[in-house]
Amino acid sequence: MKSEPDNLRSIEMKRHEKLYDEQERRVNEFIKSLGFKDDVKISDAWCKYLEEKLQFPFEAEIIDEPGFLEVGDIIKVIGIDGVFDLYGIVVKARKERKLYSFPICLLELIDVNSKNYQLVDDYNFWFCNR
After folding, report:
1. Partner residues linked to 58 by β-bridges
2. What is the pTM of this model?
3. 59 located within any domain
4. Considering its fold, how many domains does the chain have in total?
């Protein structure tokens, strides 16, 4: 018989696998519905989709640092700036009084229960695995 911590880890791993499978299914269905094979067209479609579906503003934490801001900083995302080859979708964000452009793939939303969280997480899943 497994010890309780091992059993809990096993349950947690199965839960994460299920969530991963659900996310993979959602993302694959979205990509399939577009009918594109080209990453540039798919990126543009993601951008349009997120512009329509995301509710601005929302708060996000920086999980990687490509510039002036640091990991752990909280920013307020106020809109989408566009799609760029290297960074994917870039958002407009504020920290205090300063305005920044920041790759959405380097952010994690604060409110994990919001619809925005799943939308951004699904895009990031696609962007990191394309």
Report:
1. 77
2. 0.85
3. yes
4. 1
